[in-house]
Each structure stands twice: as C-alpha cells, then as structure tokens.
Design brief:
With about 375 residues, this protein is α/β, with parallel strands linked by helices. It is built from 15 helices and 13 strands.
C-alpha cells in the first residue's frame, strides 16, 4: 500500500528542445501552443508545467501515447535530461533534495545509490553472464566480490531465474532477459526504481506475467516506482497513482478509480470507455450504509469483480464490507456491482454478473 505522503515531487517542470530554450521559456509559460512554438520559433515543447506528487513506497504510472512526453519526464528524475525550468525533489537521507541543483559528484552518487532503471530493450551486456549482469551495479559501487555475488544470486532466484546464473543473454527468451534487467535494478537496493516502457517489448502473456512479478515483489520491497507505459490496462493494474500526459502536459492524475469514474475530458473518456470497470472499482466506492447481513464479507479494497464472483459462489445478493481488521463498514449489493460495471454508453440491462468459470477478457492496448 502506497504511503499518503509524496516521495518524488515534480514542480513546474518545463523542457524545451532547440537552440535557445531559455529564450522560449517565457512564451511557453504564457501559453503559446506546442505547434506555434515549433512552427514559428523552431523549438519543441517537450514538457509544459508538469507538477506531480508521486507516492512514497508506491507505483506512480505515467501514461500517454507516443510523443506525449512520458519518457522525457522519467529521464528528468535521474537527470539524464536537464530541464529548462522546474524542480525535481527527491527524499535523500530524510531531506528533500532538488536533483536539478545537484553538482556532478552529487548527481553521480544519486544515480548510483538512490535510483535504478529498467529499460524497454533490456540493455544487458551480451558478453556478461546473468550473474555478472545482475551484480554490475554493485561492482560499480565498489561492493566486495563475495557480497555482490551473494546479493545478485538472491535476486536472480527471486525473479524466477534460479539455475540461469551462468547463462548469457542470447541464451534467454525476451521475458527472461527482462527478469535479468529487473534483478539488476533490484540488486542495487536503491529506493527509487525507474521503469521506462519496461514490459512493452514483451508478448502479451509474458507481459502479464512480468506485471505479476513486479506486483509480488513490490509487496516485499516497497520501492518508490515510476512506471512509464502507453497501455491503459497496464496502468490500471500497476498504478497506485496514474498521471496521463498529452502533448507534454498532464491532462489528469489520480487513482485508477478516479480516472475511470471521473474522466477529466473527452480525451480521457475515450481511453477509459472500454475499461473493465470490475477490475478497477473497489468495494469501498460502492458500499452503502447498513447493518451486517447474512452473507460473505469482502475487504473494502477488493475490486468489485472479485466481490461479484464471491457473491455468485455463495448464492448471495448482498455482502458485508469490512476493513483490514474485520470491522464492519457497510454493505454492497450485487445490483450495485452490476450497475457500476456498465459503462455509461451501454444500457444497464445488458450487464450480467461475471461468470466464475468464464475466462478473463482480453486486455487491449490503447
């Protein structure tokens, strides 16, 4: 569960590409459009006034179509790209530090000790074994050979690659190579994990498997993860918070529930129109007041699709909603679940409770 306080805080971040970005900053701040800045002034507005509070110990997803600025944004967090203006505040030793103001030595230390990155194209050394790849960051940090081998071996096993330590990348499948990349990032034990389209190059089934691996690991490690994707289903499955970018600007940010149930504009509405709401909306959102009833109990954080399956299995129409300690919070009916699972453009009569034996629907990328 993500903490309520922010981890990484981005404040009024601008990035303008071109020969005189600082001279174009005032125009961008005054509201000149991306197209006008390009056509009349020969500069590209990569990011415009980005402000995001990212959850400490949680997964912040940044989503958008190609050219939206999402990969540009993540590269500002470890300052692979310098901003034109703005702040990137990260917690270091209990204090907020602006990455933008770090000198060369501070930045190098920050990259080595505070952040790790997982790339879309794996970025493994082809002449290194799995073990050598995973321990590479520790070697750069100067960790003793025995300690780094033990630490690397532990993460190799943890990501499901036990027995492959002596293999080379070309002997592994794409999914296995990405597990190596994930193990390498986790072996450094950095508090911030940056994942830029990390699973986009994988086949759908392998991609789903890697999402499960990440969620399972996150329960254990509690890193502050920034995950870039163009896929809404992936964003909703992984994200404690989601920020959606378009043309370098944040269009909407919030939880998956907030975005699905209250899209900010037609652009967001088009993204969420075909979302399986049963996998996003949680019981606490739909529950009503009421005394305990004869029926199953469901956790307030459970998605309503799971609650519907439980009600179906037990032949009940109403469930008790409880918190993690088992305290009664309210009640939730099957009728309310069915109504919430129907997008606004579909007639309510078309909805049916999910069949427990039915296969899960295919998740389409947007």
């Amino acid at each position: 569960m993500a903490e309520a306080t922010p981890g990484i805080r981005i404040r009024h971040l601008y990035k303008i590409f071109g020969p005189r970005p600082e001279a174009m900053l005032e125009l961008a701040q005054q509201g000149v459009s991306k197209q006008e800045l390009r056509d009349r002034h020969g500069h590209v507005l990569g990011l415009k006034d980005i402000s995001i509070d990212m959850p400490a110990g949680g997964i912040q997803v940044v989503m958008g179509l190609s050219g939206s600025g999402k990969s540009t944004l993540i590269r500002h967090i470890n300052r692979l790209i310098d901003p034109t203006a703005g702040e990137v505040l990260v917690p270091v030793d209990g204090q907020d530090v602006d990455v933008v103001k770090m000198n060369h030595r501070e930045l190098l230390r920050f990259r080595r000790e505070q952040t790790a990155m997982v790339f879309q194209k794996f970025a493994l050394f082809p002449h290194f074994t799995v073990l050598e790849n995973v321990q590479y960051g520790l070697q750069v940090q100067g960790v003793a050979a025995r300690q780094r081998r033990e630490q690397a071996a532990r993460w190799i096993e943890r990501v499901g690659l036990k027995g492959y330590a002596d293999h080379y990348p070309n002997q592994l499948s794409g999914g296995m190579q990405q597990r190596v990349g994930l193990a390498r990032a986790l072996a450094n034990d950095a508090p911030i994990l940056l994942m830029d389209e990390a699973f986009s190059a994988l086949d759908p089934l392998i991609r789903s498997d890697m999402q499960s691996v990440l969620l399972d690991l996150q329960q254990e490690i509690g890193k502050s993860i920034v995950f870039i994707t163009h896929d809404l289903d992936e964003a909703l499955r992984l994200g404690d918070r989601i920020a959606i970018l378009r043309d370098g600007e944040v269009v909407q940010q919030g939880t998956g529930q907030q975005i699905v149930l209250r899209p900010a504009d037609d652009y967001i509405a088009s993204f969420v129109r075909d979302v399986n709401r049963g996998r996003v909306i949680r019981c606490r959102t739909l529950m009503g007041e009421g005394s305990p009833v004869q029926g199953p109990s469901v956790d307030a954080g459970m998605v309503i699709e799971e609650a519907a399956r439980l009600l179906n299995a037990e032949g009940c129409k109403v469930a008790n909603v409880v918190n993690a300690r088992g305290r009664h919070l309210g009640v939730l009916s099957m009728d309310e679940i069915i109504g919430a699972m129907v997008p606004a453009h579909e007639p309510a009569a078309a909805a049916q409770a999910p069949d427990p034996a039915a296969p899960a629907p295919v998740a389409w990328s947007h």
